[in-house]
Design a protein that fits this description.
Blueprint (H helix, E strand, L loop, with lengths): L2 H18 L3 H9 L4 H26 L8 H47 L6 H15 L1 H26 L20 H7 L6 H7 L4 H29 L8 H5 L4 H13 L2 H33 L6 H21 L4 H30 L11 H23 L9
């Protein structure tokens, strides 16, 4: 592979990885703790396989349409007006759910800082949102700049955390838990591997080179799997599942992200651990927050045909940040809840829709594709069943019909 092609693959893979790794990984150990490490690791690998398969289906349908096509236009071409509007609504709710989760988690960390400085914690949401709303208003170049700073902080803090914590992991703790309690974490795991909305842009960036795109998608999704598994191993090997300071208790905490960083630092009684845990938590939320905020800002601009004049940008900024701000003000403990709901919309948009669009393109419109995923109808049905299963599990969770662990 030539250097230019290798560089494109590396850039594409890093874009995929950066889209996956973010605030979601902070909630994953808490949500999967009751299942135990080894069943959780199996669930991670299974979800990664299914999400990679649906990503290849998204690639197949993306390659059938010209550059500039997005999920909405592809849905209209394959599934008609009803498919377009369902995708439009789910897309909007998906991005708002993510924004609400990240606003809740980020403002919780800011509240702890404000508390130490003697500033009212109630101002943390407004301060957090207001600061980053300015960058979104100023544009992509400013967002890119602050995102790069946060990515450096995220990588440094993650490596430091794992290096400090790994020698202290207690293998016995990894055997705690029962696999039946993992069903309720399925929507969150889907969100953790959700990068599919990036694929149409990735296709443009890599000039529709199929081999390069497939490699970038595979490698870009594999790295988050490794990072998640290592993070799961560290957290579940250090923090007990049960008890007042256990991971299950953190799930009920008003600020689970803050509580997790405190639990890690308290377990090791290491001041550096406390610092790196807070940096990691904050940077993980911020890298996701600014990316999703920018995507939502652009989506609202296109969807509502709002021009990017100074007045238009103010309207778009308000539309982007007001709903998640209200959610965080009135339901500050909603970090994991918002991520679970985001998982439902992710199952529709990132799992169901790629399979449905490919089915219609192949078997109803009967058009040939430049690239076709293996397996025919069987693979498409498997992916659709997986997506339906995730949605059904969330419904069962809301109806309190899934097994729950005892505190």
């Amino acid at each position: 592979m030539k250097w230019q092609a290798l560089n494109r693959v590396l850039g594409g893979a890093l874009l995929v990885t950066g889209t996956c790794i973010g605030a979601g990984m902070l909630g994953v150990p808490i949500a999967t703790a009751a299942g135990g490490f080894y069943p959780a690791a199996a669930a991670f690998i299974f979800c990664w396989m299914m999400m990679t398969l649906s990503a290849f289906l998204m690639l197949e349908i993306s390659l059938c349409y010209p550059e500039g096509s997005n999920l909405i236009s592809m849905a209209q071409a394959t599934l008609g007006q009803s498919g377009k509007w369902i995708a439009w609504v789910c897309y909007l709710l998906f991005l708002y759910s993510l924004m609400a989760a990240y606003t809740s988690g980020g403002s919780g960390i800011v509240a702890k800082i404000f508390n130490k400085l003697g500033i009212a914690e109630e101002l943390s949401v407004l301060a957090f949102v207001g600061f980053f709303a300015v960058f979104i208003y100023l544009g992509t170049q400013w967002v890119d700049g602050i995102n790069r700073i946060m990515m450096v902080g995220l990588i440094v803090a993650y490596v430091a955390l794992v290096s400090i914590a790994a020698p202290e992991v207690e293998i016995e703790k990894l055997h705690n838990g029962e696999a039946k309690f993992l069903f309720m974490s399925a929507p969150l795991l889907v969100t953790a591997f959700g990068f599919h909305l990036l694929i149409p842009s990735l296709k443009n960036y890599m000039h529709s080179h199929v081999k390069e795109l497939r490699l970038a998608i595979f490698l870009g999704g594999l790295l988050p799997l490794i990072v998640y598994l290592l993070w799961e191993w560290v957290v579940l090997g250090l923090v007990p599942v049960y008890g007042e300071a256990g991971l299950l208790a953190l799930d009920k905490s008003p600020q689970p992200v803050v509580a997790l960083s405190q639990a890690l630092s308290g377990t090791l009684n290491n001041q550096w651990m406390t610092l790196f845990a807070r940096i990691f938590s904050f940077c993980a939320i911020l890298t996701s927050f600014v990316g999703v905020a920018l995507g939502l800002f652009d989506f609202l601009s296109d969807g509502f045909h709002i021009k990017r004049s100074p007045t238009g940008k103010i309207i778009l900024t308000v539309l982007t940040f007001l709903p998640p701000t209200l959610f965080s003000l009135f339901y500050p403990a909603g970090f994991l809840l918002a991520l679970r709901y985001a998982g439902v919309f992710a199952a529709i948009l990132l799992v169901m829709y790629p399979a449905l669009m490919v089915w219609c393109h192949r078997y109803h419109l009967r058009q040939k594709s430049e690239y076709q995923v293996f397996g025919g109808r069987g693979v498409l049905l498997l992916v659709m069943i997986f997506g339906c299963g995730v949605i059904c599990l969330e419904v069962l969770q809301e109806l309190h019909l899934l097994p729950l662990p005892n505190m």
